[in-house]
Amino acid sequence: MKKGDHLFLVDGSGFIFRAFHALPPLTRKSDGLPVGAVSGFCNMLWKLLTDARDTSVGVTPTHFAVIFDYSAKTFRKDLYDSYKANRSAPPEELVPQFGLIREATRAFNLPCIETEGFEADDIIATYARQAEAIGADVTIISSDKDLMQLVTPNVHMYDSMKDKQIGVPDVIEKWGVPPEKMIDLQAMVGDSVDNVPGIPGIGPKTAAQLLEEFGDLDTLLERAGEIKQVKRRENIIAHAEQARLSRRLVQLRTDVPLDVDLEGLILEPQNGPKLIGFLKAMGFGTLTRRVAAACDCNADEIDAAVVEVEWGGAAHGPDLDAPAPAGEASAANASAPASNGKPAAAGSVIVGEARPADLAQARADFYATAKIDKSCYITIRDVEVLDDWIRAAYETGVLAFDAEAASIDPMQAELAGISLGLPDNAHTPAGGEIRSAYLPLGHKTGDGDLLGGGLAENQLSMKEALDRLKIVLEDPSVLKVGHNMKFAYLLLKRYSIVVQSYDDVMLMSYVLEAGKGGQTLDSLSERWLGHVPMTFKEVAGSGKAGLAFDMVDIERAMTYAAEKADLSLRMWFVLKPRLVAERLTRVYERLERPMLATLAEMEERGITIDRQILSRLSGELAQRAAAIEDEIYHLAGEKFTIGSPKQLGDILFGKLGLPGGAKTKTGQWSTSAQVLEELAAVGHELPRKIVDWRQLTKLKSTYTDALPGYVHPQTKRVHTSYSLASTTTGRLSSVEPNLQNIPIRTTEGRKIRTAFISTPGHKLVSADYSQIELRVLAHVADIPPLRQAFADGVDIHAMTASEMFGVPVEGMPSEVRRRAKAINFGIIYGISAFGLANQLSIERSEAGDYIKKYFERFPGIRDYMENTKAFAREHGYVETIFGRRAHYPDIKSSNPSVRAFNERAAINAPIQGSAADIIRRAMVRMEGALAKAGLQHKARMLLQVHDELIFEVEDDAIDETLPVVISTMENAAMPAIAMRVPLKVDARAASNWDEAH
Questions:
Q1: In what order do the strands lie in the sheet with 762-769?
Q2: Does domain 717-783+858-997 sit in CATH 3.30.465.60?
Q3: What keyword terms does UniProt attach to this protein (predicted)?
Q4: I want to staple 948 with a disulfide (CB 3.0 to 4.6 A). Which of 129, 248, 768, 989 is the partner?
Q5: Spatial distance between the Cα atoms of 900 and 891, rounded to a whole number of angstroms
Q6: Is 105 left (phi over 0), alpha (psi -120 to 50) or beta?
Q7: C-alpha dist (Å) from residue 936 to 758, 926, 939, 954
Q8: Are the C-beta atoms of 434 and 347 separated by less than 8 Å?
């Protein structure tokens, strides 16, 4: 973020309740799920995004985030146990919508931000002050008086319901004090809704008068004896401490530890297919059509998404305490005995009739109460001490480590230091005690040259230290332990160190508890160790005063970095035996751990883009937009600002008098996409041209102009970052940039893929699984007709249509096949009659008949669904064909809507998860397969996009590479699983991604 940028911060929790109370109840027709708040939220957000891009009023955001309350348990409850005690639980019909609204935010391709222990207002305050310090402008989308303390000349509020901007004068007009005195005013007045006590008998007007007279709360309390009114004076004196407490409760924190920094809030374009998939899953037909028009998508060709319900923890929404579901208490609080009836000490050898679960429980019990003594952490500043630690690593065979850097991009970050952790054998052979240290290598003083100053004193030479560490880090006889190790792996590889033999506790936790909680080190530490770690913001600061890690004082940096190694090792001792006890070792060893290096190599390679193609596309889009502009001006009879809804409305409904005009609450004509589409549908040319112009200008600004900004300055390639532990089912996701969501359903979108090119002398190879999820379904449900169709290589959709409707495959009408295709894919995602009716534009009863006939023809699918639900209800999770678990702890919820969501997700997870596992297995084996064929230097795997792998291959090696890639992918399930249906891969080579796909 830079000076001049504009950050929009949406009070998501406020949006939820405004949407819920402002609209009549609404339920999804397919299953009765309450979706009124979700509908209102989506419509409010869509309108906000549409209006926000109105460049004529000069408030187009460059950065955007939606902020939510994590739960009612915040630091304020620790200050005052009665804080918000007056608030009742949210209405029952609202509860299941909290998680859906978060999913909606992500479907809009917007950052969805929440932080445990803090309210949404504190997060908003932190971002606002950070952005303001940079020189950016901030608009807070809320009318909440609690946020008015943040208003400054550069920070405004906007009440979207009233279309009203709130600035400094507006705060003064309403409350009688400027924003900087709102904290003191609220502390005096109190808040009955939040149960902030305040001072009895003091209302807003009285508080404003007192602040004008005395200046601030502290002065008022000191001079309370001067107040003439007896009752008022007595109340203020008697409740002085209550007022001070109230001030602490109402004052917003501006130092919230944020997982996503300002740069992570860049406003990205909406992904039309993704958003439409979500809206169709919710049954929001009107908004689906609006979005489809605005995003130039054919909604009929887009399947409804599978939307999993988040239930428990953050998903409960604001001010709803969420106890752990039954059966999900943490092992730290459990009390399974060892074989002698007493908990075994950590590291002790359990013999006799003891089970692996006993060791796992004993470890969890021990580390839940073991003291974490940061005073024992040390800074390594000389070679002898470092050598001692390396020798100790060889003695124990285990070394925890992490790499600290000056930035979060491992492809460009400078190494600041290495943290180390060891089990202390003097106490117990299995690590009952941990000793931890930090080795600073690149910390700077801030003095000296303009690039950040010279190196701080008393640090080992980077080369000398890394030469020593390289030996142990690359030695497979010493196990390296860390959390989210892909970052350190990539960073150290740039320093010529390739880490060998490692365990990643994030991936261990993901295998054990996907769907049950977050996988950050902070969340794992709190869950299993009962310890809240030091945050990066605490050590480095934030906002204008924030420092890069290499500029932090070494001793302060040591406490933070050493703690990470300490906690990682403790978590390893807790989680490692659980893998054995719960029989998930093979999932971790075969599907998770090997992927770390595989993805790191792919990220390091990156992919080339052709800036000229993107520039040319931008030029083409600009020319087409300009040509349409001329047509618009001709049709309108004058020039005007096309992007201005006000000017456009005046032209359409004022000057031209087109029918159907309706004014918004602000008195302006509505020029929404739906309004324009409706006008175009009845033959009006100007609205159609406006729609076309909007689509072209959006593509230009959000795609062709933006992608070059991701090119690495040294490699000249785009390097995405893959997330290994971000979905319940095992699917990968990518960020910065998200290359898995590049639009491909429109002509312009496909053209964008043409900009992803091979380098001279190479081709891009795209290898894509054909209908893999249907094939997995045929395998797990064991459906003979489907199996036979796949074995014979026939058109599966035509075969389904023939089976269902009695229509011969030869000469089958395309419409009949399209309906069968919609059902085939819809069944995987638990489509309802309502959803299918929407998709096919048919009556719900007809869609219901289709689904009924489908199950009659393929009864094995219904049996699979019922058996899967029964298994999930009994165990709380489902498994892929390779044993990966996806947990759905609310599968037995008494709420029918929540239960239905969990059931649908549980049905889909083995299908989607098995497909994800298959391509993971293929990726892990690919490097070895290419090497075995002598192609390791000629063919490189670059990207994974769901069911597709993209390679860069030398021209003369294409014919050799294609069979290796296809064979590896088609046989990826073997030997663990002998698929009942063949896997099929389509692969081709071309000079760009679009042609290869």
A1: 939-945, 948-954, 762-769, 985-990
A2: no
A3: DNA damage, DNA repair, DNA replication, DNA-binding, DNA-directed DNA polymerase, Exonuclease, Hydrolase, Nuclease, Nucleotidyltransferase, Transferase
A4: 768
A5: 8
A6: alpha
A7: 17, 10, 6, 11
A8: no
* CATH code of the region 6-265: 3.40.50.1010
How far is Cα 304 from Cα 831, in angstroms, rounded to an integer?
8
Quick check: helix, strand or coil at residue 368?
helix
Rounded Cα–Cα distance for residues 61 and 802 (Å):
52
pLDDT for residue 241 = 92
**Distance from chain centroid for Cα 725:** 11
Instruction: Decide if 97 contacts 37 (C-beta within 8 A).
Output: yes
pLDDT digits (tens, 9 = 90+) for 905-943: 899 899 999 999 999 999 999 999 999 999 999 999 999
Helix boundaries (H) for 459-592: 462-473, 486-493, 505-513, 521-524, 536-540, 554-581, 585-587
Amino acid letter, residue 115: T
The share of the chain scoring above pLDDT 90, in percent, equals: 45
**By three-state DSSP, how is residue 112 classified?**
strand
Do 370-573 and 6-265 fall under one CATH topology?
A: no
Integer Cα distance of 872 and 945 in angstroms: 29
Counted residue by residue, the chain has a size of 997
- The stretches of 283-355 forming alpha helices (DSSP H) are 285-295
**Tokens coding 913:** 């998860």
Half-sphere exposure of 772 (CA within 13 A, CB side): 25
Which residues sit opposite 7 in a β-bridge?
Answer: 63, 138
Domain ranges of the chain: 6-265, 272-307, 370-573, 609-714, 717-783+858-997
For strand 155-159 and strand 137-141, is the pairing parallel, antiparallel, or unpaired?
Answer: parallel
Low-confidence residues of the chain: pLDDT under 50? 57, 311-354, 426-432, 448-452
Query: CA-CA distance, 799 to 217, in Å (whole number)?
Result: 78
Q: What's the CA gap between 61 and 54, in Å, rounded?
A: 10
φ and ψ of 533, to 5 deg: -75, 165
The letter for the amino acid at 877 is Y
With residues binned 3-state (H G I as helix, E B as strand, rest as coil), the percentages for the chain, rounded to 5, are: 50, 10, 35
Domain spanning 609-714 has what CATH number? 1.20.1060.10
My answer on whether omega of the bond before 577 falls inside 30° of 0, hence cis, is no
Q: How far apart are CA 521 and CA 527, in angstroms?
A: 10
Instruction: Give the closest residue to 428 by CA, choosing from 610, 636, 569.
Output: 569
840 vs 198: CA distance, rounded Å? 59
Give the ranges where 682-723 is alpha helix by DSSP (H): 685-699
Contact 736, 744 (CB under 8 A): no
Q: What are the two backbone dihedrals, phi and then psi, of residue 74, each rounded to the nearest 5 degrees?
A: -125, 175
Bridge partner residues of 415 (DSSP): 405
Task: Provide the token pair at 606.
Answer: 């990156």
In 3-state terms, what secondary structure has residue 939?
strand
Token pair of 586 as six digits: 């093979």
CATH code, residues 370-573: 3.30.420.10
Give the DSSP letter of residue 520.
S
d(CA 308, CA 134): 38
In this prediction the pTM is 0.61
Question: Is 403 in contact with 557 (CB distance < 8 Å)?
Answer: no
Q: Are 48 and 141 in contact (CB under 8 A)?
A: yes
> Quick one: how far is CA 602 from the chain centroid?
21
Angstrom distances, CA of residue 535 to CA of 117, 444, 506, 542, 564: 13, 21, 17, 11, 10
Helix (H, G, I), strand (E, B) or coil at 778: helix
CA distance 238 to 356: 61
Q: In whole angstroms, what is the distance from residue 665 CA to residue 667 CA?
A: 5
Please report the pLDDT score of residue 847 as a whole number.
80
Cβ 516 vs Cβ 889: under 8 Å: yes
What are 231-247's pLDDT values in tens digits?
A: 889 889 999 999 999 99
Identify whether the C-beta of residue 335 lies closer than 8 Å to the C-beta of residue 365.
yes
DSSP state of 308: P
